[in-house]
Amino acid sequence: MLLKVENLCKDFPVEFNVFGKPIKFLRAVQEVSFEVEKGSVFSIVGESGSGKSTIARILSGIYKPSSGKIFYEGNLRENLKNRDIQMIFQDPDSSLDPRKTVAFIVEEGLRVHKISNKNERKKLVINAIKSVGLTEDVLKKYPHQLSGGQKQRVAIARSLVLRPKLLILDEPTSALDVSVQAQILNLLMELKEKYELTYILITHDLKIVNHISDQTMVMYLGQIMEMGKTEHVMQEPLHPYTKGLLESIPKIGIENLAGFSIKGEIPSPLNPPEGCVFKTRCPVAFEKCSEKPKLVEIKNRKIRCHLYT
């Protein structure tokens, strides 16, 4: 087991008293637990506001959890160096410093962690750039001189140069043109095999999940709705929310999902519905949904729904 997460919670203060003490919180992630096998692709899916990107930022060390534990290779995440887990962000335009050259950007992590000397670092940077399909001439360029696909390749090289075992991919292709998305996705899968990487994929694109993922976790308002092997979740969804997500994707290969379309918008996490948080949009909600459902195991997966309790 490469990564194990236990009862992860994250609260953000949104209101303070006159003394600056927080008195109101937004609970972005609620008691989330999962495991990621070495060499696998673990996907976290859900609409915007579901908490999936918050989980990614906690795992990468950007945010500290309010409670819960994270174990990496059996060790607590807080005891690790940041280089052990790397993250590739959604938008390379905002994640790459426009004032620095590509060479500076890719080498920065090596300098921060004091890896090798200047000459050795230069070699590592060149190897990283070549591994993502770019040539040495881009090292002298600035981000604004590159295409969207090239920028994302630089972002991938910046993470790979530190030789992590776990890469967190936060919507890695959503900011790119459709023609480039497949190229970046294929590159990521090639690098996964070459460097024996493990991926946590944060995405709303279920077609990508269905194509490359081993395990899938479906999130809604900070809670796990359904989790299991991707083939089970995609081919035989159980939770009404999962069914609704799949029905919205054309030609996903799922049948008999009529009537499970999701209507309306996700409620504000500042004022989530009581009981089942999905009840206000669920086409099969009933009286018991006023109570909070537990996460239970059924049919080789975990699910949070009163239809199965």
Low-confidence stretches: none
Helix/strand order, N-terminal first: EEEHEEEHHHHEHEHEEHHEE
Shape: globular
Share in helix: 25-40%
Q: How large is the count of helical segments?
A: 9
Strand order in the sheet with the most strands: 6-7-8-3-9-10-12-11
Q: Major sheet, described briefly? A: 8 strands, mixed
Structural class: alpha/beta
The chain-level mean pLDDT equals 91
How would you portray this structure in words?
With 309 residues, this protein is an alpha/beta fold. Helices cover 29% and strands 25% of the residues. It contains nine helices and twelve strands. The protein has helices at 52-59, 92-95, 102-112, 118-131, 148-160, 178-195, 206-212, 230-235, 240-247; strands spanning 3-16, 22-36, 41-45, 67-72, 75-76, 85-88, 166-170, 198-203, 215-220, 223-229, 295-298, 301-304. The strands form two sheets. Strands 6-7-8-3-9-10-12-11 form an eight-stranded mixed beta sheet, sandwiched between helices. A hairpin with a 2-residue loop joins strand 11 (295-298) and strand 12 (301-304).
